[in-house]
């Protein structure tokens, strides 16, 4: 072989070697895949930044109007209309939150000079209108038990006042002055709240700068965000609309995902990465993507790993890169992981090697019922690039539309505009590893339940593995489903709950029974790789309904799915129609959310969650993430409300783009490894604002309550960065032909 032939074949030279040393090697910045496509011309940059400002400019103006209104009210309190606003010095990486509704504060707010209680402007407005600040559900906000600034907040159990009494105790004085809330609400009740500002960005000056640069670009800076007029992207995609009118089932660039009558968006734009390799801002593929993205439609890109180095995403390869044999800060994390058992949605601890073995071979409860485990956000914390650097670089290079998805250099990604010194939200990459089976079990399915992300997201299926079940397992599952269906329809709600608990307990009880001597002898190899059995409690709250006798996963002997299967007893794969995807997605349209919520508010008592018990309460049927809409409920949803989601299978190597504001759920049909990254596009930033307002009204202990994205701060920094860059570009007098249009 010649030197060139060796270099072309060498895994080290090709940067896809799977040895531990190479897997731990950090990619040099200059050779990181995908970096070269981030370079764009000045005219393209002007066009893109003007496009971005057309969406976020109106939001900056809206924020400025709210602040000016508060300043105007403050002027009325003084005789000479003079207002002195104290500037608060915050570290660049310091976050400031409203003490009442937990919303992040980006500029103007009110604060108590005595106890430092901070209140956002929205809560101030609600108080003046006689409303409960933070929404009617915010009363459960008192379920915080922490100490801030030397004073103790009351918990719900300690506080005997009801919501109305508390609301009456906190009133505006003279229709203008807002006192610090009483001690029962976390304040001191002794001082008036004064105006303060963080002072990082002067919003009033920023608005003037936006108007000027938009005028220079001949764009309307007051255009409502999300409309897209004047930027060449209004109206539906004519190409896809023509294909849909023709009634074609398949097309090179489209995938049929719904059958809504009279709808223009039943197809999902689904190009191959080979068709959009040129990530230039004027590339037709990006323009086509923007047409659909602007209208809140998901997009699928196929074959994303066709332009990468070919690094393996096999689970054992990832485990090899992740594991530690020496003592360091990660040593304990590499031995065991916390997984969620989809049967009762409680956490279990399992040896990481055993988890990955179950991923490839399957695991079953002693009863034969398939055991569905899943990891979320693994590796833990924010160490994806530190623990799996080569996989992190491979993932970023595989992402399509880098101008949107690149976490640090994406020109159209608002998250990339945050200065280095400013605290940033955790947007990933995050890994989701889960077992799965082709058929919907109806009990313990491997699913991500219905929810709505606060930002845009792209999810890539990097690996999948089909695990076959034995024929006797199939019979057990089918028999259980048939009997349960008959009993469930006849029983009352109380009987249903008791029946569900009994059947789930039976599955878990059978899991705890020891193997008989014969079975142990037949499965000696499997037993050697498992640790001794010992009883242990189950971690994870289940509202007091603990299923006793469950064994800790790391110390529990389970059977692999293939155990005790003779050659003539092996059933065929549940997929009888040829190769299937690894995951089944349901993504709902934004405009269908009211009808979806209406249906779920009527039927929520029919869904199960913790302990596999029927739900006892629902705060928000989407944001709670406690509901999975199975095939039966999807059928009823269409009958009662006339809506259906985009439903499609995700294949290995496909990237699914989910717009902010679209509720979605996923069922794993195979064992799957998915890697996801969040980003914030200008087209959907108004949806991020809408969702942050919805999250604000949730109780303080709700899983979705925290304002993790801090979207207003991101908008201000993105607008400031775009204005500054446009000023510099326009000063050079470069012809900006095509400005405001993405050709």
UniProtKB/TrEMBL annotation:
Residues 395-696 form the JmjC domain. Transmembrane segments: none annotated. One of its GO terms (cellular component) is chromatin. It holds the Pfam family JmjC. The keyword Metal-binding applies. Residues 523-550 are annotated as: Disordered. SUPFAM superfamilies: Clavaminate synthase-like (SSF51197). The keyword Metal-binding applies. It is found in: Nucleus. InterPro entries: JmjC_dom, LSDs-like. GO terms for molecular function: chromatin DNA binding; histone H3K9 demethylase activity; metal ion binding; transcription coregulator activity. GO terms for biological process: regulation of transcription by RNA polymerase II. Belongs to the JARID1 histone demethylase family. This is JmjC domain-containing protein.
